[in-house]
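Hallway conversation turned thread

IA: we were arguing at lunch whether anyone had actually written out Cytochrome b6 end to end. Turns out nobody had. So, for the record, here is the sequence (270 residues) and right after it the structure tokens. Reply here if something looks off.
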Amino acid sequence: MSTTVSTSHTHLHLTESGEHLVSHDAKYSDIGRWLRQGWMDMAHAPGASLFYGSIMALSVALVYFSFIAEPLMMFKVATFFVLLSPFLATGLYYVAQQLEQGKQPSLSASLVAWRPNVGEFALFAVALGLVIAIWARITPMIAAVVKSNSLLIVDPNAGLMGFLSSDAGLSFLAYFMIGAVIATAFVFTISVVTIPLLLRDNNIGAVQAMIISFQVTMENKGVMAVWALTVGALVTLGLVTFGLAMLIVMPLLGYASWHAFNDLVEIKES
């Protein structure tokens, strides 16, 4: 647990290890600056940006074409990717950190950026895995609520459009989106500064980092809500373009999220 002491624009967090972290209040205008800084990072690290963007783009396309006749599974797996995105962006956070320090980022090093703090990264991955496991159990329950047996009459050859044009499919999608928004909002709240914090400070544990992430989000409810909507809109763009837009969206959001973390959290050196 941590103790928080607030002033008008800053909040002091005292961790169990005695470390001092200061969180700052953000402004709505900061969101545009985070994105601009992310765009500049893409220009300074084109190779790494293309690599991570391509991985996500190919993943989205693979999910779509693998489950084109199974819309239920398609929506479930797509949500898994969204929930895991904070962890998948670890390499991008590392690249942004290297650029910030004036170093030439190494793609190979970014792939193992979690290694210095592997135990805490693993714990955070387990936490996200639990959320995904719960969501995996909820999805068939949603289908049951909307009498998913009627989905069996949808022509499999019609694929996604056949599903979306059916009454049962639309009902499922409405309930599914409500649940997905709640799940992703929860993941966003506990992860918005977690992985950048674990990268920057090996003295912070995963549970402590998630608590601080929640506290920082609550301290900036309005700005964080708009930031979450911005992230959601860009990720949605990546999904509806069958992954093509992810070539830009994934690195842009990864780098921008690092700059958001830098504005929101300051680690006081002892």
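OS: looked through it. The CA atoms of residues 9 and 190 lie 21 Å apart.
IA: good, adding that to the notes. Residues 3-268 form one domain.
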